[in-house]
Amino acid sequence: MEIDGADDLTLRTYYMVDWKSACQTDSNATCVTCGGKMRKFEPYRDKKGIIYDGLVCHTCKQVYWLKRD
To answer: Over the chain, what is the mean pLDDT?
Structure first.
């Protein structure tokens, strides 16, 4: 996926991602809503080269985007 910036990512919701084909790995993060285990999925890079990591909670159906430093 090509994105212009972080604003594009806020529009990506849980239901807009094909989770069967998304590459996911375990993470040490826990969901702030339900306390469940979160999973990492492939990072996205915007046109400026900034990388955003994704975390997903499948229980709450929440997606969180974290900007890399």
So the answer is: 83
pLDDT at 25: 95
SS3 call for 64 = strand
Residues in contact with 8: Cβ distance below 8 Å, sequence separation at least 6, in sequence order: 46
pLDDT attached to residue 43:
87
Q: How far is CA 35 from CA 1, 2, 45, 64, in A?
A: 29, 31, 28, 14
> How far is CA 34 from its chain centroid?
17
Could you tell me which of 48, 40, 47 has the C-alpha nearest to residue 64? 40
CA distance 66 to 46: 13
Residue showing tokens 């702030």: 32
